[in-house]
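Posting here for the record, re: guanosine-5'-diphosphate.
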Amino acid sequence: MPSNVDQRYIDAEKHYYEATTNEEKLKTLQEMLSAAPSHKGAEVMKVNIKERISKFKALIAAEKKRRKGGYSIAVKKMGFQIVLIGFPNSGKSTFLKKMTNADPAIAAYPFTTQKPEVGMLDYDGAQLQLVEVPALVEGAADKQAELMSIVLNSDGIIMIAENEDQETTLKNELKEFGVPQRLMVILKGQEVRKQDIFNFFGLIRVYTKEPGDDPIMDKPIVMRYGSTLLDAAREIHKDFAKKFKFAKVWGSSKFPGQRVEKLYILQDKDVIELHAER
Ligand SMILES: Nc1nc2c(ncn2[C@@H]2O[C@H](COP(=O)(O)OP(=O)(O)O)[C@@H](O)[C@H]2O)c(=O)[nH]1
Ligand SMILES: [Mg+2]
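Prediction output follows.
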């Protein structure tokens, strides 16, 4: 430490080391900079502080963008969206092709997939959206923020790994980027059934019917376990949720066609008949 710093600088530095958030770090660094001595010998010290200020500004900006989900190449959601991630050649495209209607290029050389590839997975009429994210590498949280933001915007993640090393590395990247979603890890070549995916992500299928009609059994709504009738109404139509009054439920209800309220929790294979205000 340069010898002639004053008490204000010493206090600011102490606060900097005590700070726990990026915002506090930035604020205390700015205080340090303004309290730093003005003579020539303190130049290096100031450069160092300025570099740290830039770093914390960048971290705060990345955090804000992340919260807004505001990166440019997000993939438009079609229902529940699961991203496929992995190192180059881990078998993501092969998995996508097997599970969905997509027809991505598959090759033995790395980085075959340059932009997100999207496919719909059909499980007896229940649909999930699978998105293959171009290959991630070590350091992805810093170097591949755009791709990581696609991951962050998803509803769930499937990682395909060739070994434990790859799994650990990518798990660390997810952690560093602050990705909280549920993560299913599969090994290259491992057999996975569609049902396993539904179970892993805790998904249920809910069928709808119109009053007096049979239920529509070929197109269920796919939702997270724990979802309510109101959630189902939102899935059907945003406006409908506002007008929605009550529903009749077949399946999990005490008796078939029982009238239940908005916050009733649905179960797999329930049939619902929604009634709106007239
Ligand atoms: N033996 C075996 N080879 C696979 C499997 N999945 C992918 N491959 C091969 O691994 C290479 C890379 O596959 P690809 O699906 O393009 O991987 P991506 O880069 O992760 O999309 C290709 O030569 C595939 O044929 C698998 O489950 N078993
Ligand atoms: Mg690929």
